[in-house]
Amino acid sequence: MAPTPAAVTGLLRQSAQYHLDNANYDNALFFAERLVAHDAKTSEGPYLLATSHLRLRDYRSAYDISRAAALRGGHLGCTWVFAQACLSLEKFQEGIVTLERSKSSWSYKVNVGKHSPTTRAANPDASVMLCLLGKMYRASDDSKRAAACFEHALKLNPLMWDAFTILCDMGVSVRTPAAFKGSEQLLQSLGQELSAVNESKENGAPTDAHARRGLSRHATAPAAIADPFGPSSTADDDVEMTAAPSNGLLSKIQAARLRIANGPTAEASHGSHDDVLVPRGQEPPRAPARRTRAAQGVMDASLEPPPRVNYRVGARRIREQEKEEQTRAVVDAVYQEMDPANGPERQRSAIPGVERKRTVSGHPVPRPANAEELVPRRSGRLNTFRPTAKANSTATNTAQPAARELKKARPQISRIVRPGSSGSNVGRVVSGNRKPVDDRGDDHHSEQPRVRDVSHAAPPQKHDESDTTKVEEALRMVLDLLKKLGAAYYHLSKYESDVALQALSSLPAVHQGAPSVLALMGRAHFEQGSYLEAETLFRKVRDKAPSRLVDLEVYSTVLWHLKKEKDLAFLAHQLIESSWESHQAWCVLGNSWSLAKDHDQALRCFKRATQLSPNFAYAWTLQGHEHHDNEEFDKAITAYRKALSADKRHYNAYYGLGRVQLRLGAFDKALTHFRTAAELNPYNAVLVCCVGKALEKLKQIAPAVTAYSKAVELAPQAAQMRYMKARGLLFMGETELAHRELMVLKDLAPEEGTVHFLLGTMYRNMEKRQEAVRHFTIALALDPKAGPKIKDAIERFEYDDPMQDSMIE
Q1: Which of 586, 551, 310 is nearest to 440 (CA)?
Q2: What does the pLDDT read at residue 122?
Q3: Sign of the Cα pseudo-torsion (439, 445, 448, 453, in order)
Q4: How many CA atoms lie within 13 A of 426 on its CB side?
Q5: Residue 396, SS3?
Q6: Please, what's the b/e burial string for 190-221 (b: 16 or more CB within 10 A of its CB; e: otherwise)?
Q7: Which of 591, 584, 599 is nearest to 564 (CA)?
Q8: Which CATH architecture has domain 5-195?
Q9: What whole-number distance in Å separates Cα of residue 131 and Cα of residue 567?
Q10: Cα dihedral value 477, 482, 488, 492, nearest 10
Q11: Which of 28, 498, 514, 659 would be a feasible disulfide site paired with 20, CB 3.0-4.6 Å?
Q12: What residue ranges do the domains of the chain occupy?
């Protein structure tokens, strides 16, 4: 019989999706091409084919294949693939138009809960599409619409971490607690899989791999040996029941086994047949019901009877009110099952094995005349068990008065070993695959059915409530973690390093040791100028994640500032060997050559880094620094501007432009660039000091001193900034304030000649010739190169301009 085209289409589609999920993109491409060739009308074919090209980074092919379906708007997956290809190919406007047109087909329900080890959503939800649209708008320099898209994506799904980080990188003011705020829709989405599992259990459908395998074994016997790696604890029973002759009782037993196997503990029933799972803090479970002789005849001889619990112990634990309620429920269930329409055969099949004892000769003991009137149907008693019953335990019980039915069964003890009993009534083994059926003792307790529970709705509700609470607690914990990490990232993007470090220190210890968190801490210390602490943290990152490349350019800059040439060269050697085509490796190598004063080699490395990643703003900035050191100011300006085109908030590029303009004598432009950089990073003392330098060059001494004072507050241990402040105060005639700053400065840099030169100038203005000459002499001893200027200052006590006293040109 020839296969139907639909079956072939389904198989090809599944094969392509299978290989996509397992990262076999070449195989996925092959089967996607076969699918398109077999059924050109299906929309899944172009989607899978374009997705395969996209995963293989063949963006042009993905763009061409998905374009028609994306423009028609018939398949949301094709629209997503097309937009991704447009983003990679820098066709931003085309991607924006396509995404805007497809908004009507977006699903505004969060699909997070649909993604699990066994299930996933077919198409992206609205939060994913909004995030992609925001990236398009950001790449096309439409920051306002980009921020709106990212904000909307976060409102729909607070787990969109990249939407939050991009907002921070754009400089948008974000309220972190509001960004990571849970919603009822998100909670419902996370509970979708749980709800589906519970519903399938209530409907009797198999929900796990064990139950599905059990159904397949009942369908055909060879299916039991199809999987050599599957569990085999119940395979023998299932196959034996399938191969046994079919009769009414056997079919009922088999149906009961299937219903029990599909309960909440179906998976547990495939493990041990003897252990009964008892939830902590609850009553011990009632024993499963015994099997009948007819059922036992088709069972595996190796299976032991289920254990029984002492009824006297269980009876003492049940409250009187619970007894009355369960008594009424059991009586109602018994009378509902006593339906004459079911026929005598069905009722006879429910008579328990204890009334079918055999004599020594092997003949069954006669039943009482009224047995069929009091015994409920087997299916009715099966429904009274809680789902914790074993899947291979057949429920056969006798019906006694309701008050006795609520008592728990005593543990199974053979009459052979029971004290004070005789073995005359022990069940005789009639065939090799049966085990003896032992007596229970007195008549009152031997015929009691082990009714676990009559209520069907209460246990699932408790189970659902418990699982929902777990989901809520898990969501709350994850959102709290995101709030702390988000606060740290946000404050670091604002260069508020102290607040960022506090937020990171509030994380749990397991997360504080993660490489990404350690890298954030290292960046925070780097922005503070604490290079030693930053180096320690980045070393830990390298130890824990040797192949991690993110933020290594910052680590190399830390080593550059610490003048650790050997460590920097070794790091560059490691990265070039392991990650030859990464822009971070070439950036690190460029810093190594720069520290070695080989600016041409450094420029080659930085150019290679920008070739590998044209939007790598830091490499453009470092390239501009090298041009500045080579006094190639035009090339430096070009490099800095390219850095700003890649990242408009890259303050290092504004700082470089200010340095170039300062060297060219364009003090107004230099002041503009320095102020822009200081606005982006107001906590960087170097940038604030550069603003003061530009103001000083423009003869604006008072504002310059204000800038120097702010820089000193940001970096109290920075001698250069305190020196600039003291010099400005001295020029303004603030001798006392200048003297105070210089005393602190002398302790910070006692071996610095410029400090003693400025002290001599101050004492000269205060007409303390002896102190002035002493400090001028110290300055001359510390800096012999400045000898002519120092001698000239000593000779011209009365005619010097204070602003000419600087040893720095």
Answers
A1: 310
A2: 78
A3: negative
A4: 14
A5: strand
A6: bbbbbeeebeebeeeebbbebbebbebbbeee
A7: 591
A8: Alpha Horseshoe (1.25)
A9: 40
A10: 180
A11: 28
A12: 5-195, 286-451, 495-547, 720-809
Q: What are phi and psi of 396, to 5 degrees?
A: -130, 115
Output the CA angle 550-553-556, nearest 5 degrees. 130
Sign of the CA dihedral with 764 first, then 770, 772, and 776 last: positive
Concatenate the DSSP letters of all residues of 437-501 into one string: ----SSHHHHT--------SSHHHHHHHHHHHHHHHHHHHHHHHHHHHHHHHHHHHHTT-HHHHH
pLDDT of residue 712: 92
pTM score above 0.85: no
* Residue 122 dihedral angles phi and psi, to the nearest 5°: -70, -40
| Number of C-beta neighbours around residue 771 at 10 A | 15
User: For residue 396, what are the β-bridge partners?
Assistant: 290
- Say if residues 454 and 323 touch (Cβ distance below 8 Å): no
Q: Which two tokens stand for residue 128?
A: 């994913």
DSSP state of 364: B
DSSP 8-state class, residue 750: T
Between CA 629 and CA 576 the distance in angstroms is 25
Which residue is listed with tokens 């052979």? 416
Q: ∠ CA(531), CA(532), CA(533), 5° rounding?
A: 95
pLDDT means per 10 residues, the chain with 809 residues, are: 84 92 93 92 90 96 94 90 95 94 86 74 88 95 94 92 94 90 76 53 43 37 36 38 42 49 41 37 47 41 42 48 58 48 43 45 50 42 38 40 40 42 40 43 44 48 65 87 95 94 94 94 94 96 94 96 95 93 95 94 96 95 95 95 94 96 94 96 94 93 93 89 89 87 86 85 81 84 80 66 45
The first and second tokens of residue 764, run together, are 């000269």
What per-residue confidence (pLDDT) applies to 799? 53
In CATH, the number for domain 720-809 is 1.25.40.10
> Going by CATH, does the domain composed of 495-547 fall within 1.25.40.10?
yes
**Residue corresponding to tokens 């029941």:** 241
Q: How far is Cα 775 from Cα 756, in angstroms, rounded to an integer? A: 5
Task: Please state, in angstroms and as integers, the Cα–Cα distance from residue 32 to each residue in 58, 124, 599, 778, following that order.
Answer: 15, 20, 51, 82
In the numeric block, the tokens 């930053």 are attached to 534
Tokens of 88: 């990679």
129 three-state secondary structure: helix
| The pLDDT value given to residue 459 | 53
How many C-beta neighbours within 10 Å does residue 186 have?
Answer: 21
Phi, psi of 698, rounded to the nearest 5 degrees = -85, 10
Equal fold, 5-195 vs 495-547? yes
Q: Coil, strand or helix: which one is 290? A: strand
pLDDT of residue 326: 58
Residue 620 token pair: 């453009």
